[in-house]
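[step 3/7] inverse_fold.run input=structure_tokens len=139
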């Protein structure tokens, strides 16, 4: 179901709770909302009102991906970036990393399965932005 975006900083600044397989509907709502928005590339569950650690993004081929409980394991090649956000009015200056390794869980057959990915460039920046959202960091 497509949800309204949350702009309330009190909600967005709270660290998210660990997600479980029972949060599958939140993940689906996240995907539905993300793909309904023009020019959107990523979204975290707290941006649609759920304080669960779930992030969704579109890759370079516009294919959607969902990460439950993403964690940054390694970050290489720092650079300064100016980022916009769907739920913030102003842009933020942040340090991001060109190459990252991230661990996360994927929902497969009703259960969460451990996974990891090596990401670079734009996709790495999107995932770092979402991890910040899950930590309650207002970027």
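[step 3/7] decode complete -> sequence:
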């Amino acid at each position: 179901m497509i949800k309204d975006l949350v702009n309330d900083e009190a909600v967005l600044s709270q660290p998210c709770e660990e997600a479980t397989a029972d949060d599958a509907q939140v993940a689906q709502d996240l995907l539905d909302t993300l793909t309904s928005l023009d020019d959107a590339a990523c979204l975290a569950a707290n941006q649609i009102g759920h304080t669960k650690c779930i992030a969704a993004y579109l890759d370079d081929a516009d294919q959607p991906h969902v990460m439950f409980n993403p964690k940054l394991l390694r970050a290489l090649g720092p650079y300064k970036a100016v980022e916009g956000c769907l739920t913030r009015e102003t842009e933020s200056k942040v340090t991001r990393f060109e190459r990252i390794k991230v661990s996360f869980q994927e929902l497969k057959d009703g259960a969460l399965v451990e996974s990891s990915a090596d990401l670079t460039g734009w996709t790495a920046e999107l995932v770092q932005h979402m991890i910040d959202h899950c930590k309650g960091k207002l970027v």
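[step 4/7] annotate
DSSP finds three helices and five strands in the chain.
Strands lie at 42-44, 54-58, 64-85, 88-108, 111-120.
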